[in-house]
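Project standup — Tuesday

K.O.: blocked on the structure for the chain from last sprint. Re-posting the sequence here as requested.
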Amino acid sequence: MSDDKTYSDTGVSKTNLVEYSVTELSGSLKRTVEERFGRVRVRGEISGYRGPHSSGHSYFSLKDERSRIEAVIWKGQASRLKHLPEEGLEVIASGKLTTYPGASKYQIVIDNLEPAGAGALMALLAERKAKLEAEGLFAPERKQLLPYMPRKIGVVTSPTGAVIRDVLHRISDRFPLHVLVWPVRVQGETTGSEVSRAIRGFNEMDDAPDLIIIARGGGSIEDLWGFNDEAVVRAAATSDIPLISAVGHETDWTLIDLAADVRAPTPTGAAELAVPVKAELDATVAAFKARLQSALGRQFDSARSSLRAAERGLSSPDAMLEMPRRRLDEATGRLGRGLDLATRRKRSSYESVAGRLSHRGLELAIGRNGDRLDALSRRAATAQKSRLERATTRLDGISRRLVVSQRGQLSSIRNRIDEHAKRSEKALSAYMTGHSNRLDQASRLLKSYHYEGVLDRGFAIVRNAKDDPVTSATSVKPGDAFTVQLRDGRISGVAAASQSGPSESPKAKPSARGTKPADNGKQGSLF
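H.V.: unblocked you, prediction finished:
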């Protein structure tokens, strides 16, 4: 057996193995896995699925009783899948096997997902049915009655299949009317979205049909799976137009059958449920017409017989008018005599009244009434004058009281204004005095803090050539110019070299900018 180790003179082992970086090793493993397996089909149960990530990608695992593999569905691929992942669903996933170097994991990138057999589809169908039924979408009280004679029918189906021909042929045979066809795919990944869009489209039309038929021929559960889509069920349940579901054969059933108002066993059966038979209606109308004509004939015959019997029981016109004619003649004779008697009575009454209505009597009555009217006019004028005088007197009194009241109010207001003015002047004066005192105090405090006050007490400020204060002797070097500021002026000088011991420091050179140097040793160098 070969050994890949060698030993140096120092006893340290050496190896002949090739050294890889982590990135190189991860990339080599990724290429090996992708080249070795490529596309694969994996059967397993979906685990850890919590819906799409915020990025739109889906991450989960596929597992069986002993192992698991990471899986990912990219955002762009998820919209093209026929079946979306659901937690706990057993599926067959197709895709590319690869690795993820960032976490040292291998995973399958899925591009197709389908339930693992009819049993899984039935389990998924049962779960979806229970969910939608709990929301009340299949409740009987939501169902609508079909119109007996619709004016227009909308059909949602494939425009090229035999189903639409059967439906149109059956409607034409029974009761020809206007049919609108909304073409959709009845098998494939887009079936659910297209059918739900067609139902909503019919409901939103201005001239909407009176009835909608959803039709498709028979097929396997996979072929009919689009009609189990949740969007289709919700669109059918919320449709304002009555809807007939005719999907598959009589033994097939989908969730749209439960949400529709009526389920037909076949598309042809849906056409029979949608419209009645026109020939049967014509025969029924003809039978009703014959029965009506027969009944009217019998009724006319009966009325004619009754009229003839009544005619035989009536007397002749002369006999019926004999007594009324006699009463009329007698009343005519009495009317002439009554008119003469009434005329005489009225004339006598008029003559008695005319005696009382003489011309002289009318003049006397008019004169009396005129005198009474003149007296009433004079009394009314006197009363009006008296009322005006009383009103004028009362108005003068009210006016005098108002004047007095206004004068008192004006005087009171003027006094209050004067009082407020005096109080304002006092307050303003006190306010100005307080501020003036505080300003004086602040000025004195500022003056006491100013360095010039310190100079008055015999202290001095040493400044360098930049006119900055010197705070330390070590900051001044021999030959540096400086200025000493006293209370009454400045003295300029140049720093000399420092000397050790108590010897006297050299005197500063006098400057023409400052005052005259002091004599007799009273003012010298500070260094």
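K.O.: great, moving the ticket to review. Residues 499-527 have pLDDT under 50 and may be disordered. The radius of gyration is 63 Å.
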